[in-house]
Design a protein that fits this description.
Order of helices and strands: EEEEEHEEHEEEHH
Number of domains: 2
Largest sheet: 7 strands, mixed
Helix content: 10-25%
CATH architecture of the largest domain: Alpha-Beta Complex
Radius of gyration: 20 Å
């Protein structure tokens, strides 16, 4: 029988500082509405500086269609799958490169909801060479947990429409090898959604943002309508 949780008790809390990614290893106990409690159990959760992330989907209207700008990012975890036991391969990605929207972690002065748009504008310049005013960014739905079972992080989504002739380029980067490789590409929105179905775009936050933009544009009033 499923029980109703009323409180999560932290029995012990150990923090492991592994560098950029940190681990909280905690012993927990559930307390239920019927007065009973679970046995103690261990739950690990990973977190990193900045705690949350900000993702921005760039789009433009060109010749009657909508295009979105995505970047190929280096993701070593994709490569790691093949060396696990048993190995788990990915037939769509021979190299650990994933097509994604711009995303990054807020800096120390950006770690408040009122500053997330500023974080997004900074990430666009660093990752895509696009300069946009933070005030042009629009929320794209509510934040989500990418993997709430093991990560504390929430992703906060924004979109920004740019001019039809907007061109991206190599941004300043953040100085890490992660941003030394990859490519930029404008995709027709419908093609990007189809690529998600085929597994060619396999990043979950990017697929979610593409569907959210699709829904938002479908809800726009028709030209000349009321």
């Amino acid at each position: 029988m499923m029980k109703t949780l009323i409180r999560l008790e932290i029995v012990a809390d150990e923090r492991v500082d592994g560098g950029w990614l940190k681990l909280a290893r905690r012993r927990l106990r559930n307390h239920y509405a019927d007065g009973s409690s679970s046995r103690e159990y261990v739950a690990d959760a990973a977190y990193r500086p900045g705690i949350d992330a900000v993702a921005v989907l760039v789009w433009r209207r060109v010749a009657g269609r909508v295009e979105v700008l995505l970047r190929q990012n280096l993701r070593p975890g994709v490569e790691l799958r093949a060396s696990l036991s048993p190995p788990m391969t990915d037939s769509h990605h021979a190299l650990p490169l994933l097509w994604e929207l711009a995303c990054g972690i807020p800096e120390a002065d950006e770690q408040a909801p009122s500053r997330f748009a500023a974080c997004g504008a900074r990430e666009l310049e660093e990752e895509m060479g696009l300069r946009v005013d933070a005030g042009a960014l629009r929320p794209l739905g509510a934040p989500t947990y990418p993997s709430g079972g093991i990560l504390t992080e929430m992703i906060h989504f924004f979109s920004v429409e740019v001019a039809p002739d907007a061109e991206a380029g190599h941004g300043s980067g953040d100085g890490s090898p992660f941003e030394e490789v990859g490519a930029l590409r404008w995709w027709p929105l419908t093609d990007a959604v189809s690529a998600c179905r085929r597994g060619e775009i396999a990043d979950a936050k990017t697929e979610l943002a593409l569907w959210r933009l699709t829904a938002a544009l479908a809800a726009e009033p028709a030209p000349g309508g009321p």
